[in-house]
């Protein structure tokens, strides 16, 4: 709390977390924080905020709120979502408020993901808090099409031009000819080359999961490998900072956190990959596990994968056993 300079009332509020919170619910909770008490709702702002919340003719926020905007918390929620959605706000005081909300919000969301990392049965909330902390840093939603806005020299208008041209991922930008980029952005050479260069030197990750032949009725072992596919290119030049890292967070169907660790790019740069053997306890609901690699600073680099672990005995549904051919074959090999 002291490290991130977080108010005691904010900490008390987050102690009520159930562990299953969605992105939308976390934003609602953050909008209630003591850190934003200096943001006031003024009468003349309500019209703009209501339009951002619900309007059939304009782009509106991702998670609209019920009814009209009538509280400070609703205003904060609305401004957070407008900023993350790249929705322009033509009002100076609201722009100033948004700046203030994000300065404090970066701190609060980072504290929240660290706080949730110390608990066990809150996989959904932890994953969403990591995603939200990154969204606050990038000022973009995690599924945003405006990935180019994160590159140097590209603001909202140029990233809009990129989106209109269908360049909605780093891969698409990298695969586009430099001269074509300049035409899209109405810029002179070597602007296109500079954009391509910065995308080329962003870290690119690959995730591989393999189940090891050692398993019982209740335990399975998986081998997770994270590969930095362009690690040779990154030896000389990097777009991300030296402090950039990814968080590997794995959870099961019972919302338990199986594994959670930050992996620095500097570690991956040495050998190009990182491997870890992880024990997976069998969940009650299903054998499905969710494996997520979340970048600390960038939208558009994350990897999210579902994986089904195998156990010795087939899963029972009611009183009937569900047999699995692949499982049988694997367990007979094991004997």
Automatic annotation (TrEMBL):
Q: Kindly state which keywords UniProt assigns to this record, in alphabetical order.
A: ATP-binding, Helicase, Hydrolase, Nucleotide-binding
The yes or no answer to whether the keyword ATP-binding is present is yes
Gene Ontology biological process? meiotic cell cycle
Q: Which organism is it from?
A: Pygoscelis papua
Name the chain's protein: HFM1 helicase
MF annotations from Gene Ontology: 3'-5' DNA helicase activity; hydrolase activity
**Upper taxonomic lineage:** Eukaryota, Metazoa, Chordata, Craniata, Vertebrata
Q: Which SMART domains match?
A: Sec63 (SM00973)
Q: Which domain of life is it from?
A: Eukaryota
SEC63 domain boundaries: 1-309
